[in-house]
Amino acid sequence: MEHITSTPTVKAPAERFTGDVYLNQIEAPADPARLAAALVRFTPGARTHWHSHAKGQTLYITDGVGLVGTRDGTVVRASAGQTVKCPAGEEHWHGATDTTLMAHVAMLVGDENGDGTTWLEPVTGEQYAKALAAVAG
Hints:
Blueprint: E1 10-11, E2 17-18, E3 21-27, E4 35-42, E5 47-48, E6 51-53, E7 57-70, E8 75-79, E9 83-86, E10 92-96, E11 102-109, E12 117-119, H1 125-135
Antiparallel strand pairs: 1-3, 2-5, 3-4, 4-11, 6-12, 7-8, 7-9, 7-10, 7-11
């Protein structure tokens, strides 16, 4: 058994996120399980860049309200206690709404090269505004 009493909070890198995002790593992918998990906190308007995961990703919302969007324009609005699963290879992004922070536990299974994430370009302001409009009401 290993008891980890705390992990440092770090600011997420600007080359993968837009806005202020903070991470606490819970687990890094290592054999045999290769689980990667992190608590990720997004300030209003903050979001990931487009990305995909070799083996998919599960997001468990712990606080606030967030959005998860896919390339085909599908947008899910998720709040605390809800889970969103992104299948392997699906290009997507996630983040807070424009008025509410959002925190989630991001979980994935890594591969032999690390966490299996492919990072892509930023979500544009226009794409983000369109996602907000799609879930308004």
